[in-house]
Amino acid sequence: MPFIQLKTELPGPRSQEWLERMHRSVGKAKAEKTLVPAIIDYAEGALIHDIDGNRLIDLAGGVGSLNVGHSHPLVVQAIQEAAARFTHTDYTVVPYSSYIELAEELCRRAPGTFSKKAVFMNSGAEAVESAIKIARKATGKKAIICFDGAFHGRTMMALTLTSKVRPYKEGMGPFVPDVYRVPFPYVYRWPGFPSEEEVCFQALEHLENTFSSQVSPNETAAIIMEPIQGENGFIVPPAGYLKGVQEICRKYNLLLICDEVQTGYGRTGEFLASTIFEIEPDLITLGKSIAGGLPLSGVVGRTELLDSAGDGSIGGTFVGNPIACSAALAVLKVYDGEQLGERAKQIGEQITAALDGFAKSSLMVGEIRGIGAMRAVELVRAKETREPASEETNQIIQRCLARGVIIFKAGLHGNVIRFLTPLVITPEQLDEALQILLDTMREVEEEFTHGKEITAV
């Protein structure tokens, strides 16, 4: 029996009523067009049920926020128990044990043998803002180096660090000063298409040259980077690149900040991607899957850095909310108990095997890449020119939705399909979703290769 059940087209009549109400009352900045044209009723694991009785397979996972799946029983229980005791105090007024225990757990799991501490925020963007504040306060320096293709959030400093213009940055400036951008080693699209080794060398050379062409290392506080770029299309750097960046940081006495908001919590098969690349960041930002869908984020790093900011300089009224901290502790129990890191590796193998089989005969598959369950496929109109297949990608996503599979795109050109499936998805559920995806990709490719106009759904 299939997991997907479609009783109506999307949106169904009840969802349509709510979507009409949405357009009358919710600002377009948030709701002009949602990815899924349906109103959720409830969800479990990797399955979403809408109010019209349709059941869909979720490969987007709340944009990577649901590694333990929708409404995991242990997380729900922790939320209920915490809410029954108290909902808020502001930790700086009346502290609570869940905050302390979560800090201890994350410090223990973060790479590096040095002493660590942690602080908590509400969102990934807030964690990034806080990490930058900490870096500047600790070093007494102002400049920050970030990367082409980066995504760090949409608050003002985070947006400055974010690379993608549309829809994020256009018309939103002026941005924060003393931020400098360098190329990220995107091997598939590096000019001239050299080898991974050559891309690694050139990218590190670009970074070194920044200190003679853009900003002095004596005025630079930190380099911030995603170990694997998320919004840019799950770009995996060449072997040795991140260690090379860390060596440059040590050489010039800079801090290394790793944004693991999307790569963390087992997405790559390890709790943190920094472990895979054998680096020890000075500061790590966490978010998304940290609390099973509740708003929570954190900064974990060297004790002397976290202590340098000073009392009251980092925080906010609701940061480290007690219910979210309790949920986050339950998430860690699920992660350990269900071995979600190992499950992520299995998911990645299953996705890659399916895509590899399709790629052998496909004219559109440019590159399949990723680590663990953090997998993506980049689609192109011609393998020789690598022209992005943006409209084709959009049509694949829309047609998959119409057939009951929620999937997400990425990349500066919107031509990358990325997998952010809950790590609790069953092999059978993933098989069903992948088969629909592959059938849809074949259909769209056939229309494209026969010179037909792509038919919108």
TrEMBL record:
It catalyses: 4-aminobutanoate + 2-oxoglutarate = succinate semialdehyde + L-glutamate; (S)-3-amino-2-methylpropanoate + 2-oxoglutarate = 2-methyl-3-oxopropanoate + L-glutamate. It is an enzyme of class 2 (transferase). The keyword Cell cycle does not apply. Its cofactor is pyridoxal 5'-phosphate. Its EC number is 2.6.1.19, 2.6.1.22. One of its GO terms (molecular function) is 4-aminobutyrate:2-oxoglutarate transaminase activity. NCBIfam families: GABAtrnsam. PANTHER family: AMINOTRANSFERASE CLASS III (PTHR11986), LEUCINE_METHIONINE RACEMASE (PTHR11986:SF58). This is (S)-3-amino-2-methylpropionate transaminase. The lineage of its organism: Bacteria, Bacillati, Bacillota, Bacilli, Bacillales.
